[in-house]
Amino acid sequence: MKNEYNIEYQELPSVKIRDADVVINRVCWGGSVSGKVGTEDAPDAILIETEQMEYYDEDLEYSPMKYMQVHVCESIYEFEKIKTSFSGRSSEKNQLLISLGGDHSITPQLTLALLKKPATILFLDAHADLRRSYLGDTNSHATPAFQLLKQGHKLVMVGIRSMFETEALRIKEDKNIHCFMDRALRREKVRKELLQTVSELEGDVYLSIDMDVFDPACVPGVGTPQAGGIDYYFATDILEALFLDSNAVIKGVDMVELIPEDSKVSQLFAAKLLQKIISYWGRSQGVQNREQTGGQMQVKYE
To answer: What's residue 35's pLDDT?
Structure first.
């Protein structure tokens, strides 16, 4: 089953959504960005670069798509439709629901659909995003953390290195925020504390990754890059702690704020990260113990 542009994940067949282990939602929305523009082009750009990824996971030592099927959804272009894009999926068992953005304003819309009770949001970002509004817009990419707290969720924030004074005060005073500042993560003790915190998460958890959390030397293609940032391998350490060490129930994942650039380095980085998320989730579900009937088995790649 093909989506409207015949863009698939790793060139694998897109099965019917009910038969998929992994559902990839393309949210082509960039209506609230500041700085550089182009986040609406990121979902397809990331998926195109997954064609460059080998199927084998060198860390987990298995090929996840030998055991899993994927469905790539049709693109969403209207903000009002984001909230309903995963309507009815939150009750589905054993499906990994991933949204590729799009700017960060999409996250509260997705959590409204996927989280039916207060949860923990693992929030990776260079910016605090705790503004009540930005330039009069309450659904700005500067407001998602504020909106998530308003929905009743707790935040574990990672990589923050840019904020307004009122946001800094909110972080210090709000008991529902546990923040790991980017500068502090230079210290091994704090890095270990973060990984321990993530490994101890339980209950419903939603993972939101703003691509500007990364060092702009690794991911230059973001709208509002900030000096500093985490690297790829520390991100995979966080994923391992979340998917393999914790008792969390992963209700959804998003990757936002990427802007495709000519070198394609940013898109390739995001594609590799997407693959890693899928691989870790698959291992957490024990898919490697299934029969090899996944999407990769239907592809002639030699």
So the answer is: 72
